[in-house]
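INPUT
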Amino acid sequence: MAEEIRIDKGLTKTITEFAPHHYHIEVEKGATLYHYRLGKFNPKDDRNSELIVDVAENAKYVGCLVLLDDAPANLKVQINLKGKGASCDSDAIYLGSGKQKYNLALIANHEASDTVSLQKAKGIMKDASSMDFQGLINIKEGVAKISGDQLHEAILLSDTAKVKCAPELAIASEDVKCTHGSSIGMLDESALFYMESRGISKPEAKALLLKAFVLEILNKIAHEKTRDDFTAEVEKWLTKNI
Amino acid sequence: MSFFEIKDLVAGTEDKTILSGFNLSINKGEVHAIMGPNGTGKSTLANIICGNPKYKITSGKIIFKDKDISTLSVDERAHLGLFLGFQNPVEIEGISVITFLKYAVNAKRKFEGKDKIAAPDFLKMIKVRATALGISDEMLKRPLNVGFSGGEKKRIETLQMAVLEPDFCILDEMDSGLDIDALKVVSDGVNVLAKDKTRAFLLITHYDRLLTLIKPDFVHIMNGGKIVKTGDENLAKELEAKGYQGIING
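OUTPUT
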C-alpha cells in the first residue's frame, strides 16, 4: 500500500529518508517539497519502490534519490505536473557492485501548460551489476509552453557491468522545448592521465573523478545535513569499491 | 651523465611507430626547445616521457636523475620531478582548480613523507603564485579548466608548475591560444622558475615568438620522429625565415 502524503497549500517542506517506500504525494498549490531519499535496506525489506507525485499549480517537487547497492531493485518515480506553473527537479544517483540489479524509471507527465521538468540520473556500475533505465517525458495534447529536460549518464568500471537505457519522448503538443540525452562509457583515460601526471595515484585519481561525477548532483541538495550524510555514504561506497 | 637523457627511443601507438630512434640530452639549468612540422611526434614525445599509457615503448631508454623511468607509473615520474604542461588540458567537471591543486600538493607531500598541508599555509602558497599569474579567487573556485579560454588554461598549467616546483618541465605548445599579453605573463612564470638554474625545461613550440620571451640554450628541429638539426636560438630565427622544409632539406 502506498503511503499518502500531502504538502498543504503554500508550505515548504523537506523530507529525508533512508529507505524509499511506496508513496503517493500531493504537493498542493504554491507548495514546495524537497524530498531526499537514500536507498538502504534490510535484506528482508520490500525491494520495490513506487513514488507518484502530483504537483499542483505553481507548486514544485525537488527530489534526489540515491541508490547504493542493497537498494530496492525496482524503482519508479513518476511526477505528474497537474497545475499551471508546476515544476519538478528530480535527480537520481545509482551505484552498483557485485550482482546488484536495478530497474529505474523516471517519468515526467506534463498535464498542464507552463510546466517545467528537469530530470537527471547518474550511475556508476562495477562487477556484474546492471541497470535497466527508462526515461520518459510525456506531454499531453493541448498544453503549451512546456520545458522538459532529461539526462542520463553512466560510467562502467568493469567489462561485465551493464547499463541499458531507454530514453523516450511522447509529445502530443507543439509549444514544447524538450531535450533528452544518455551517455554510457568508461572513465575518461585522458582525465586520469592528467591527474596522475600531477602526482595523484591512479586509485586516488579514479576516486576523485567518480566523486566529481556524482557531486554535481549531491551538491544540489539544499538541506545541509542531508547533503553531508548522503555525500558521506557515497564516499564510503567509493572507498570500498574503487 | 646528463640530468635528463633519451637514448635510441623507438615508440608509438599499438599500430604505428612515431618516434624512430630519438636521442636527446639535457643538463640541469638548460632550456631546450623542440620545433617541427605538425604530426612529426612532438606532443607524442612529451606524452611518452610522462608515461601516457596510450603509447608504447618498443626500445630505448628515458633516463632522469640517473634512473630509467620508462617503466615507472605516471605518478611516480611526477614525484621524481617531471612535469608536463599540456597543450590541451582536460576539463574536469565537479573538481575546482583549488581542490585539484590541494590533491596534487598533498600527493607530493605524501611521497615526501610529510603530513597534509595545513589549510592556511596552502591558501597562502596558492595566493602568492596565483596573483603573480593574474589568476583571480573566482577562477580558482571554478571547475578545473571547464569553459576556460586558451589563455586561462595555460595560466592554470603554469600555476600548477609554480606550486609543484618540478625539476624538469616539458611545456607542450604553451604559446598556442595565447595573446601577446597572456604569453608574457605565462613566460614570466616560467622564467621565475628557470632563474636559479636548478631545473631544466623542454619547450615544444611552433613559433619563434615564445623563444624571444624564454631564451633557449638549444633549439632542435624534429622531423619524422627524430631530431634532424640542433643549434642555438639563431636556429629558430633561421626557421622563421626559411620554413621547416628549407631547414630540413637545406
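end of record. The mean pLDDT of chain A is 93.
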